[in-house]
Amino acid sequence: MASNKPTDDSSTAGGDINSYIRATFDDPSSAATVKFVSSSALDTQDIAITGRNAGGSIISENLTLVGTTLVTTSNVYERILTCVLSSGAAGVITASGNGINKITDIPVGESGFCRPFYDATSNISTTKTLYDKVFVKNNNSSSALTSATIIEVSSGQYDKINFAIEDSKKSAQTITNRTTSPTGVTGGFGTGPSGMVGGALAAADYQGVWLKLSMGAGDASVNSFYQVQISGITA
Q: The whole model's pTM is what?
Protein backbone atom coordinates (compact mmCIF):
# COMPACT_ATOMS: atom_id res chain seq x y z
CA MET A 1 0.00 0.00 0.00
CA ALA A 2 0.97 3.67 -0.17
CA SER A 3 2.41 5.31 2.94
CA ASN A 4 -0.50 7.77 3.23
CA LYS A 5 -3.84 5.97 3.60
CA PRO A 6 -6.40 8.56 4.75
CA THR A 7 -9.71 7.60 6.30
CA ASP A 8 -11.21 10.96 5.29
CA ASP A 9 -11.41 13.23 2.24
CA SER A 10 -9.13 15.99 3.58
CA SER A 11 -5.78 14.34 4.41
CA THR A 12 -2.78 13.74 2.12
CA ALA A 13 -2.99 10.52 0.09
CA GLY A 14 -0.40 8.45 -1.79
CA GLY A 15 3.35 8.68 -1.32
CA ASP A 16 6.00 5.96 -1.48
CA ILE A 17 5.35 2.29 -0.83
CA ASN A 18 4.72 0.94 2.65
CA SER A 19 5.97 -2.62 2.13
CA TYR A 20 4.73 -3.68 5.57
CA ILE A 21 1.02 -3.15 4.83
CA ARG A 22 -0.64 -4.97 1.92
CA ALA A 23 -3.86 -4.21 0.10
CA THR A 24 -6.55 -6.81 0.64
CA PHE A 25 -9.88 -7.27 -1.09
CA ASP A 26 -11.42 -10.40 0.44
CA ASP A 27 -14.05 -10.69 3.17
CA PRO A 28 -15.69 -13.37 5.30
CA SER A 29 -18.10 -15.42 3.18
CA SER A 30 -20.84 -13.92 5.38
CA ALA A 31 -20.86 -11.77 8.53
CA ALA A 32 -18.77 -13.57 11.13
CA THR A 33 -16.26 -13.30 13.89
CA VAL A 34 -12.71 -13.32 12.47
CA LYS A 35 -10.10 -15.86 13.54
CA PHE A 36 -6.35 -15.22 13.67
CA VAL A 37 -3.52 -17.71 14.08
CA SER A 38 0.23 -17.57 13.46
CA SER A 39 2.65 -20.20 12.24
CA SER A 40 5.03 -19.01 15.00
CA ALA A 41 4.65 -19.27 18.76
CA LEU A 42 6.55 -15.97 18.99
CA ASP A 43 3.56 -13.96 17.73
CA THR A 44 2.17 -12.89 21.10
CA GLN A 45 1.27 -9.31 20.21
CA ASP A 46 -1.73 -7.04 19.68
CA ILE A 47 -3.61 -6.54 16.44
CA ALA A 48 -5.96 -3.57 15.87
CA ILE A 49 -8.96 -4.52 13.71
CA THR A 50 -11.43 -2.19 12.03
CA GLY A 51 -14.31 -3.23 9.79
CA ARG A 52 -18.04 -2.99 9.20
CA ASN A 53 -20.81 -4.98 10.81
CA ALA A 54 -23.80 -6.41 8.97
CA GLY A 55 -25.60 -3.08 9.31
CA GLY A 56 -22.75 -1.20 7.62
CA SER A 57 -21.47 0.61 10.73
CA ILE A 58 -17.72 0.87 11.34
CA ILE A 59 -16.61 -1.16 14.37
CA SER A 60 -13.18 -1.85 15.83
CA GLU A 61 -11.37 -3.77 18.56
CA ASN A 62 -7.93 -4.84 19.73
CA LEU A 63 -7.13 -8.53 19.91
CA THR A 64 -4.10 -10.23 21.46
CA LEU A 65 -2.53 -12.95 19.33
CA VAL A 66 -1.46 -16.14 21.11
CA GLY A 67 1.03 -17.61 18.66
CA THR A 68 -0.15 -20.88 17.13
CA THR A 69 -3.39 -20.87 19.14
CA LEU A 70 -6.48 -19.72 17.24
CA VAL A 71 -8.00 -16.52 18.67
CA THR A 72 -11.35 -15.01 17.69
CA THR A 73 -12.69 -11.44 17.60
CA SER A 74 -15.53 -10.37 19.85
CA ASN A 75 -17.15 -8.38 17.04
CA VAL A 76 -18.94 -9.85 14.03
CA TYR A 77 -17.60 -8.39 10.77
CA GLU A 78 -19.18 -8.32 7.35
CA ARG A 79 -15.97 -6.88 5.89
CA ILE A 80 -12.53 -5.92 7.19
CA LEU A 81 -11.11 -2.45 6.51
CA THR A 82 -7.75 -2.56 8.34
CA CYS A 83 -5.72 -4.88 10.53
CA VAL A 84 -2.47 -3.55 12.03
CA LEU A 85 -0.04 -5.48 14.24
CA SER A 86 1.92 -3.81 17.01
CA SER A 87 5.14 -5.14 15.40
CA GLY A 88 6.27 -7.20 12.41
CA ALA A 89 4.92 -10.74 12.24
CA ALA A 90 7.29 -13.45 13.45
CA GLY A 91 5.40 -16.09 11.46
CA VAL A 92 2.70 -16.11 8.81
CA ILE A 93 -0.51 -14.83 10.41
CA THR A 94 -3.73 -16.04 8.81
CA ALA A 95 -7.07 -14.22 9.11
CA SER A 96 -10.17 -16.33 8.44
CA GLY A 97 -13.94 -15.94 8.53
CA ASN A 98 -16.68 -18.46 9.22
CA GLY A 99 -16.05 -21.94 7.93
CA ILE A 100 -12.35 -20.96 8.15
CA ASN A 101 -12.54 -19.31 4.73
CA LYS A 102 -9.22 -17.48 4.41
CA ILE A 103 -9.43 -13.68 4.20
CA THR A 104 -5.70 -13.07 3.86
CA ASP A 105 -2.24 -13.82 5.25
CA ILE A 106 0.14 -11.37 6.91
CA PRO A 107 3.60 -12.58 5.78
CA VAL A 108 6.65 -12.79 8.03
CA GLY A 109 8.05 -9.33 8.83
CA GLU A 110 4.94 -7.45 7.66
CA SER A 111 2.51 -5.70 9.97
CA GLY A 112 -0.96 -5.79 8.50
CA PHE A 113 -3.36 -5.16 5.65
CA CYS A 114 -5.74 -2.45 4.53
CA ARG A 115 -8.66 -2.08 2.14
CA PRO A 116 -8.52 0.66 -0.54
CA PHE A 117 -11.06 3.52 -0.32
CA TYR A 118 -11.55 3.19 3.43
CA ASP A 119 -15.02 4.49 4.42
CA ALA A 120 -15.79 5.92 0.96
CA THR A 121 -19.22 7.58 0.92
CA SER A 122 -21.16 9.28 -1.87
CA ASN A 123 -22.68 12.77 -1.82
CA ILE A 124 -26.45 13.10 -1.68
CA SER A 125 -26.91 15.44 -4.65
CA THR A 126 -23.63 15.51 -6.62
CA THR A 127 -21.22 13.01 -8.12
CA LYS A 128 -17.99 12.31 -6.27
CA THR A 129 -14.61 10.94 -7.36
CA LEU A 130 -11.98 9.51 -5.03
CA TYR A 131 -8.39 8.37 -5.72
CA ASP A 132 -6.36 5.79 -3.83
CA LYS A 133 -2.87 4.43 -4.45
CA VAL A 134 -1.62 0.87 -4.31
CA PHE A 135 1.61 -0.76 -5.48
CA VAL A 136 2.53 -3.97 -7.24
CA LYS A 137 5.90 -5.34 -6.14
CA ASN A 138 8.18 -8.16 -7.20
CA ASN A 139 9.16 -9.77 -3.90
CA ASN A 140 11.56 -12.19 -5.56
CA SER A 141 15.12 -11.34 -4.55
CA SER A 142 16.76 -12.53 -7.77
CA SER A 143 14.33 -13.02 -10.69
CA ALA A 144 12.69 -10.33 -12.83
CA LEU A 145 9.07 -10.46 -13.99
CA THR A 146 9.09 -9.74 -17.73
CA SER A 147 6.11 -8.89 -19.96
CA ALA A 148 4.59 -7.49 -16.76
CA THR A 149 0.96 -6.47 -17.18
CA ILE A 150 -1.69 -5.25 -14.76
CA ILE A 151 -5.17 -6.66 -15.32
CA GLU A 152 -8.45 -5.54 -13.77
CA VAL A 153 -10.58 -8.33 -12.31
CA SER A 154 -13.94 -7.84 -14.03
CA SER A 155 -16.30 -8.33 -11.12
CA GLY A 156 -17.55 -6.43 -8.09
CA GLN A 157 -17.08 -2.66 -8.55
CA TYR A 158 -15.17 -2.81 -11.86
CA ASP A 159 -17.81 -0.56 -13.49
CA LYS A 160 -17.08 2.25 -10.99
CA ILE A 161 -13.28 1.94 -10.64
CA ASN A 162 -10.55 2.55 -13.22
CA PHE A 163 -6.80 2.40 -12.69
CA ALA A 164 -3.74 4.25 -14.01
CA ILE A 165 -0.04 3.40 -14.00
CA GLU A 166 2.32 6.03 -12.56
CA ASP A 167 4.73 7.47 -15.13
CA SER A 168 7.79 6.19 -13.25
CA LYS A 169 8.49 3.29 -10.93
CA LYS A 170 9.01 3.80 -7.21
CA SER A 171 7.23 7.15 -7.39
CA ALA A 172 6.46 8.90 -4.11
CA GLN A 173 3.78 11.14 -5.65
CA THR A 174 1.12 12.34 -3.23
CA ILE A 175 -2.13 14.22 -3.72
CA THR A 176 -3.53 16.94 -1.45
CA ASN A 177 -6.46 14.70 -0.52
CA ARG A 178 -8.18 11.74 -2.09
CA THR A 179 -10.61 13.91 -4.06
CA THR A 180 -7.65 15.41 -6.02
CA SER A 181 -6.63 13.78 -9.29
CA PRO A 182 -2.94 12.70 -9.47
CA THR A 183 -0.85 14.35 -12.19
CA GLY A 184 1.85 11.73 -12.77
CA VAL A 185 -0.36 9.37 -14.77
CA THR A 186 -0.16 10.72 -18.31
CA GLY A 187 -1.39 7.42 -19.73
CA GLY A 188 -4.75 8.13 -18.12
CA PHE A 189 -7.28 5.94 -16.34
CA GLY A 190 -8.88 2.90 -17.89
CA THR A 191 -9.80 -0.73 -17.35
CA GLY A 192 -6.63 -2.26 -18.82
CA PRO A 193 -4.84 -4.49 -19.33
CA SER A 194 -1.87 -2.15 -19.01
CA GLY A 195 1.83 -2.85 -19.37
CA MET A 196 4.32 -1.86 -16.69
CA VAL A 197 6.76 1.03 -17.13
CA GLY A 198 9.70 -0.55 -18.97
CA GLY A 199 7.70 -3.74 -19.51
CA ALA A 200 9.17 -5.55 -16.51
CA LEU A 201 9.60 -5.59 -12.76
CA ALA A 202 13.17 -6.31 -11.68
CA ALA A 203 13.82 -8.20 -8.44
CA ALA A 204 12.48 -6.12 -5.51
CA ASP A 205 11.17 -3.49 -7.96
CA TYR A 206 7.72 -1.92 -7.55
CA GLN A 207 5.23 0.15 -9.51
CA GLY A 208 2.61 2.60 -8.25
CA VAL A 209 -1.00 2.25 -9.43
CA TRP A 210 -3.67 4.87 -8.81
CA LEU A 211 -7.29 3.75 -8.46
CA LYS A 212 -10.17 6.07 -9.39
CA LEU A 213 -13.60 5.51 -7.81
CA SER A 214 -16.50 7.35 -9.50
CA MET A 215 -19.68 7.53 -7.42
CA GLY A 216 -23.03 8.82 -8.55
CA ALA A 217 -25.18 11.19 -6.52
CA GLY A 218 -26.81 9.31 -3.68
CA ASP A 219 -25.13 5.98 -4.44
CA ALA A 220 -26.20 3.51 -1.77
CA SER A 221 -23.79 1.45 0.29
CA VAL A 222 -22.81 -1.82 -1.35
CA ASN A 223 -20.80 -4.78 -0.05
CA SER A 224 -18.61 -5.53 -3.05
CA PHE A 225 -14.97 -5.59 -4.11
CA TYR A 226 -12.45 -4.52 -6.71
CA GLN A 227 -9.17 -6.17 -7.57
CA VAL A 228 -6.22 -5.88 -9.93
CA GLN A 229 -3.81 -8.67 -10.75
CA ILE A 230 -0.37 -8.72 -12.31
CA SER A 231 0.75 -11.23 -14.91
CA GLY A 232 4.12 -11.85 -16.53
CA ILE A 233 6.94 -14.29 -17.21
CA THR A 234 9.76 -15.26 -14.88
CA ALA A 235 12.65 -17.65 -15.35
A: 0.90
